[in-house]
Amino acid sequence: VLTRCTIFPSPDVNHACLLRTSPEAADALIDEISAYFQSQELAPTVFLSPACTPKDLSKRLEAHGFIRQESEEAWMVLDIRNLPIPELYPTVPIQQITKQDALTFAEVFMEAFEMPTEAAPAMAQLLEPSINLPGFHHYLARVGGQPVGTCSLICYKTVGILGSAGVVPAHRRSGAVTNLTVTAIMEARRGGVEALILQTAAGTLLERLLSISGFKKLFTRVCYTMP
């Protein structure tokens, strides 16, 4: 799988993943990936997971000049069929956004993850086409009428993907995270979802907290980038 986005030049949306080929064709595939991203003036980026083949892809990437990044992604799953649902905090209402809220969602997301707010219009442009599509849900949490947190849920049959969950620093103890997550879980259940999947940085406090909350690690994914 190769993804490319002209309006948001981040490795999260500009990379190759799920490489599956024979040992004889692996080097040619790596060259093809590198040439494509270089033609777009982007650093070639590959995410390796246990689904990739052949097994020596990491060594082959390094031989082609790729460098393994220190951080890893942990992909985790939560069975929500019989999960106890806590009560919502009454002072933190959750709103499912419309297209008019796309920029606000993007700005809050950028602040929550301490990213440059200059990228918010590009993220809003990426977000807008999915708003109101079946199975796509994007939420804003508010405190005192002000937007303070974001969360997205994508549902497909019995699986839901939870992402973009973040709260601005000043309101991280407001209950916004709980209300966003509970709202997403309840929506997923209504749609027949049995398990939620999310990704987070591996080996972090957040991963430990997710494990304590019932999430189980499926696998880790490693990023390789060519300077």
Characterize the structure shown.
Helix content is 29%, strand content 31%. The chain is an alpha+beta fold and 227 residues long. It has a ten-stranded mixed β-sheet, with helices on both faces. α5 (176-190) links the parallel β8 and β9 (195-201). The longest helix has 17 residues, at 23-39. It is globular, with a radius of gyration of 19 Å. The model has no long low-confidence stretch (mean pLDDT 94).
Strand-helix topology:
Layout: E1 2-3, E2 15-17, H1 23-39, E3 45-48, H2 57-63, E4 67-79, E5 94-96, H3 102-112, H4 120-127, E6 136-143, E7 146-156, E8 159-167, H5 176-190, E9 195-201, H6 205-212, E10 216-225
Parallel strand pairs: 2-3, 8-9
Antiparallel strand pairs: 1-2, 3-10, 4-9, 4-10, 5-6, 6-7, 7-8
List the main descriptive attributes of the protein structure presented here.
227 residues, alpha+beta, ten-stranded mixed β-sheet, 6 helices
Radius of gyration from the alpha-carbon trace, in angstroms: 19 Å
Number of strands: 10
> How far apart lie the N and C ends?
21 Å
General form:
globular
Q: How much helical structure, as a percent, in the residues? A: 25-40%
Number of helices: 6
Average pLDDT over all residues: 94
| Low-pLDDT stretches | none
Q: What characterizes the major β-sheet?
A: 10 strands, mixed
* Cross-sheet strand order for the largest sheet: 1-2-3-10-4-9-8-7-6-5
Strand content: 25-35%
N-to-C order of helices and strands: EEHEHEEHHEEEHEHE
- Quaternary structure of the protein: single chain
Structural class: alpha+beta
